[in-house]
Amino acid sequence: MQVNRELFNEVMVPNYNPSEVIPVKGKGSRVWDQKGDEYIDFAGGIAVNCLGHCHPALVNALKEQGEKIWHLSNVMTNEPALRLAKKLTDATFGEQVYFANSGAEANEAALKLARRWAIDNYSEEKTQIIAFNKGFHGRTFFTVTVGGQAAYSDGFGPKPQDVTHVDYNDLETFAKLISDKTCAVMMEPLQGEGGIIPPTNEFIQGVRELCDKHNALLIFDEVQTGVGRTGDLYAYQGLNVTPDILTTAKALGGGFPIGAMLTTKEIAKHLKIGTHGSTYGGNPLACAVAEAAFDTVNDAQLLADVKRKEQLFRDGLAAINEKYNVFSEVRGKGLLLGAVLNDQFNGRARDFLVASGKHGLMALVAGTNVVRFTPSLVIPDEDIQAGLARFELAVADVVNG
Q: What is the mean pLDDT of residues 26-44?
């Protein structure tokens, strides 16, 4: 059997358009394809591979648990799930955890919990969910409706009701929308897919205060920002604003699919027995790998190093921009960075992505106007320098047509 890009078109549903490159091996921040060509990975599987490829701690956890027990169902609990939940609650505001398989599922659970909490505590009318334009919360019908990109949710028939959107960082409009009928506000503490947009202090503090005033739950979607990505274990900790519910996935398993929702006991009690569930959620294999990833990332030195590496990226991108003048700014925090294209290159982010691939660099976009970088949190300095050198060649290609 020829396993190539053509086979994709034959056997896979056409909702993706993957590159011609099929990676077969990864080590640290380097990846090799079927032909043996090498790439430096600045994409990290979209902020998932927080410890790069085949990190020994994750490989060992997978092998060890793989010899013990893989799956039970939630008729029983298991040791890795309990250990991981304890570590998550010890390290955050959260007191109780619900495990799922993805960020979308964690967000689905958060939204269902918020609605149930509001109806139980207040009234059947307290159902409004406010979210933000350009936000992204997953691809289930509920989460994609709450996400602020209509292109992803249009065309599937009637959407879940009572979801309202407002521009990120527009506190004035938000204040007019929120009311005692609002049950929850869902937001990313740094917008990812929407273009790497950080919140202003005034905005994020104001949202928290208005949620308190109107008895609405504040849900932070930390699927992309969580587990060390911004240089704090979770982004909320660097913003000094604590949500009522937090969702985490992507980097949580370091590449193994797992998601989680964290909240307080007082809120969690509204998901009574039977109100929500997941066949695979909290399975021992995923939780064992996630525990190893979490233990490795939840380290003061590693988190400080993320902030140091951020500066290496910023300095390198500034040097490239001095030569080629393609970016208006670099946004983001830690190793969730977006180089925003200036007017001359407006809408051409994909051109930079394709050119990067030709020079052996894996990068990302965030919309049509931002080149996004979400590398491993432990990427060696020399790989950052080498990757930026490859990116400079890609920039030169685009500039020179």
A: 98
